[in-house]
Amino acid sequence: MKNSLMNGTVGTGVALSLGLLAHGAAAENLRLLTWGGYAPENVIEMFEAETGHTVEVTKSNNEEMIAKLRATGGGGFDLAQPSQDRIAGPQAEFGIYKPIDLDRIDSAQFIGSMLAATKANTTVDGEVYGVPHVWGTSGLVLDTAKAGMVKDYTDLCGADTAGKVSYRLKRPTLIGFAFSMGMDPFAAYGDPAAYTEIMEQVEAKLIECKPNVKTYWGGGDELMGLLRSGEVVASMAWDTGGWKLNADNADITFVAPAAGALGWIDTFALPAKGKADDAAYDWINFVMRPEVSALITESSGQFTASQGADEFASDELKARFQASFPPEAIDNIKWYPPVPAGLEAIEGGVLDRVKAAN
Amino acid sequence: MRNQARLGFYLLLTPLLLWLILLIVIPHIDMALLSLRERVGVGKYATSMANYGTFFGEPLYMWTFLRTAMMSVLATLITLIIAFPVSYYIAKMARGRTQSALFLLCLVPFWVSELVRTFGWMILLRETGLFSTLLQWAGLVDGPVEMLYNDAAMMVGLVYTSMLFMVVPLVTTLESLDDAVIEAGYDLGGSGFSVLREIVIPHAMPGIVSGSIVVFMLSLGNYLTPTMLGGKDSLWFTELIYSQFIVRFNWELGAAFGFMLLILSSVIVWGTLRLTGQTLEKTMG
Known about the structure:
heterodimer, A: alpha/beta, D-Maltodextrin-Binding Protein, domain 2, 2 domains, 7-stranded mixed β-sheet, 3-stranded parallel β-sheet, globular, disordered N terminus, B: mainly alpha, MetI-like fold, two-stranded antiparallel sheet, 13 helices, 3% strand
């Protein structure tokens, strides 16, 4: 009670001083569940100064976001940022989000095609549950001087890089290997039997590949350490990871694999029991402004779905992006379709068996 | 007067009861119910034993548990073998300030968190780490050696993490052993080994057992050390539980795993107590 009173007073004061009473809505505390780098300190300060709302950031990842929201039935947070493919399944299964009121979103600020694709992928029973924010890809991060021969996911299993390879034991690895082995796992999403068959082949390949692996990385910083020290020369990771390292060591960079980089879009979704919807919508409309989006791109290294924000992006980042993605590699990006509920169980068994194999 | 005493009794009992019921009994009942649910469709659940069926049906899970239990037993034994002489020295040979200083040294690593201690080991053992560099500098090896990401590294981490929990009970029980008894043993013609076997170990038994139980349970329930030091082959049972809950959204199976861990580890502790002829009352009292 004391807290909300305080926030209210401070908020009103700021709003008055900025002459922004037109907003009308009372200041709220926005509890944001997001990824590292998506809500940089400078953006939060600007937002708090302009709207009077306060922002409380919790950094997380896809799985933890869903697990946290599931534990509380969608409470504890006012705005979450899961990937677009991980919304429809958990929503159908656990009902942890509430529909987005599209009238309250300034859709002109979004890149049209990306907004349309995300809306389609996050629709459950005719209601839209997500709008796009940040996008990127995962593929190969290589020390090109030592592992230049790696062109595709399965090349990580080659003798040239034995003992100097690292990837995650998570679903992107399964999907990447499946594409690289000439199969299309996305086409089999709706057919559990066909999907199981694909996953069995991937499982065999990953077990065969295991002696090549130094360790399965867990967090981004762990992988950065491994690549920087030279203990690992070829890995499967996000594009930003590669570009960050490229700034320190020109040999290391992100390479789009021959089978196609895997494209993801992180979204905005409203948790079912969120209490600060006004602040959530204000935040979405605020951070999608091109100049604010550019700040987020600078902090996370990742591009956003904001229309016109790339004009503000730094030339270095643009150069790295163009070096990693020739036009044909962009066309070859495999965008994740929504994951149907229950698919994780099939993948889970595969991952457990790979981990246990000798 | 009597009434006041009763009131005091209940007042003292309340925190304990609240603790037990709110934080232990209720969550466990909830977990038990959860573990008995089976997902039959999108958002639909039925009561069944299917999750326990999965545990026994998939050899992988049983093997992982056995591996975790065996490694934990081994870690307990190694900890005991290292901690016993250390405790004996602290309790019986060292005197005054030396004694407190040595005891403090055992305690110092626990002033930082487990995560930091584990990172410390990673810095020492990794390919570009301290040991590898030292060996190369001394000319003992030609290229970098990787000492991280294997079972031995994991064992080192587990033993290091649990050392204190073995030393403390051992020092306490050994301190209560009268020096005169040991001298009497030698006076009666006992050798060093027979004094150790007939007098010191039997006296220290409660400390050994309680220390071993604590270390075993800590190792079995450890998540951080196996994951970070064990690398790609480190499948640990707690890791399975974590991934069922967080990565697979399969809370039902995770809850069943949690219960199996509780039941099986209790059985192991109970079995060991029976085998060694100890009881929990003797150890804790």
